[in-house]
Write a structure and sequence with these properties.
22 strands, tRNA processing, Rossmann fold, five-stranded antiparallel β-sheet, 445 residues, Phenylalanyl-tRNA Synthetase, Chain B, domain 3, Lysidine-tRNA-synth_C, ligase, alpha+beta, tRNA(Ile)-lysidine synthase activity
Length: 445
């Protein structure tokens, strides 16, 4: 019966094809030993992979030897690796369990790619689903954390999620299978074990059919999350205004939605922002603009009309020298490029109105020219004005957002600002009726 249900679960979830080679993650414990036997019974091509984490001395070595003998017994390929898990955990500042998980799944992924396996199968079952759900609930989670364990996640499949541990043990004894017992499973060192030994029995006393009702609950939670994701995507389209590499989340549109703070937190997860940061952004939207929030890769500034998401740029501390009239566009620190052209002034010349183009009296410019970010204290004489003005004041007057302020550069001639690039020409370098030659400089993205 278990073998038939096993095959039906695999086919029903389309985990792999009957001719696919599957890599089995086998620890030597009850679950993985039964999984290996079931793969053999349904004649599915497979190989075995075992990780020796070196955490239990001779017992760990004995586990590896036991699993290797299983591979010989079934006549299938065997892969073995060993990690210094404790050293890895100490180096990364994480728990031994987390280090072990990362090490084994990274290794499995390498084997799948190198050896051409269709996927890697792990022996998680319904008890694991319940324990994972409870762990996530205790630690704090959203709907995604209440799924327990997915049947498929990238190249990892879990073909035993339909069965309980008791059912696996009954089958193993009926088939005369032998397995290794990990002594640490009987201890209360880890949170999962404490839940398994003390919490789950209480819950099962309240509902003896708990393990069979959990999959139905998880299914409903997955359906609810699907609906939630669809609504988040729909409302994102209504709120988000994409502008090249930046996104403006319009304040009015966001605050008119139900649960705006929750939506904001979900939207901003992929950009590396925490739930706490998102909550503070929601509060900021109800106050005066100006606050700044930053993740490892993005910055969000509270502007007058909403939250502006921009990628963190590479270092903007550059200074580019243009020695002479270049033949082609000049790249400016990967931010933009400038194209230069010089020609005789036509009698009917009129400067273009495009802010991305500036026209200079070529004979007033002195080579070399310099391009650099504007700096606090920079002054220039804006076109049409008699006096000087701080560049910072110009940007404030033009209501330039903080990200755009940081990207604003200046073109200098003989250490004098000739152009606040893309924003304002200096009056001293303008084209006049006395101009004989014009230099045209154009911004190209």
């Amino acid at each position: 019966m278990l073998e038939r249900n096993f095959l039906e679960f695999i086919n029903g979830n389309r985990l792999f094809g009957s001719a696919d080679r599957v890599l089995l993650a086998v620890s030597g414990g009850l679950d993985s030993v039964v999984m290996t036997h079931l793969f053999h019974q349904i004649r599915q091509p497979f190989a075995i992979a075992h990780v020796n984490f070196g955490l239990r001395g001779d017992e760990s070595d004995a586990d590896a030897h036991f699993v290797q003998n299983k591979a010989r017994e079934y006549g299938v390929p065997f892969h073995l690796t060993r990690f210094d898990t404790t050293a890895e955990a100490d180096q990364r500042g994480i728990s031994i369990q987390m280090a072990a998980r990362d090490l084994r799944y990274d290794w499995f992924a390498q084997l799948v790619q190198q050896e051409g396996y269709a996927c890697v199968a792990t022996a998680h079952h319904q008890n694991d689903v319940l324990e994972t759900l409870l762990l996530n609930l205790v630690r704090g989670t959203g709907l995604a954390g209440l799924h327990g364990i997915a049947v498929r996640q990238n190249t990892v499949v879990r073909p035993l999620l339909f069965v309980t541990r008791d059912e696996l043990e009954t089958y193993a004894r009926e088939q005369g299978l032998h397995w290794r017992e990990d002594r640490s499973n009987a201890e209360d060192t880890y949170a999962r074990n404490r839940l398994r030994h003390h919490v789950v029995p209480v819950l099962e006393s309240l509902n003896p059919g708990l393990l069979h009702t959990v999959p139905h609950t998880v299914g409903r939670l997955r359906a609810a999350e699907t609906l939630m994701r669809e609504e988040l995507e729909r409302s994102w389209q209504a709120v988000a205004d994409r502008r090249d590499d930046r996104i403006l989340l319009k304040a009015d549109a966001l605050l008119n939605l139900t649960e705006p703070d929750f939506r904001l937190a979900e939207w901003l997860k992929p950009y590396g922002f925490s739930a706490d940061q998102s909550a503070r952004m929601g509060q900021a939207l109800r106050n005066q603009p100006g606050q700044i929030f930053q993740s490892a890769t993005y910055r969000i500034t509270h502007e007058r009309d909403g939250l502006l998401i921009t990628p963190l740029s590479a270092s903007l501390a550059y200074s580019l020298t243009v020695e002479a009239l270049p033949d082609g566009p000049v790249d400016v620190a990967g931010q933009f490029s400038l194209a230069f052209a010089v020609f005789d002034r036509p009698a009917d010349f009129r400067p273009p109105a495009d802010a991305a183009t500036a026209c200079f009296d070529a004979d007033r410019l002195r080579w070399p020219l310099t391009v650099r970010p504007w700096q606090q204290g920079d002054r220039f004489r804006p076109l049409g004005l008699n006096g000087h003005k701080l560049v910072s004041d110009l940007l404030t007057d033009q209501k330039v957002s903080r990200p755009d302020r940081e990207r604003t550069a200046v073109l200098l001639s003989d250490n004098q600002i000739a152009w606040v690039i893309g924003r304002r020409l200096d009056h001293r370098f303008r084209v006049t009726t006395e101009t004989k030659r014009i230099m045209l400089v154009t911004i190209r993205s």
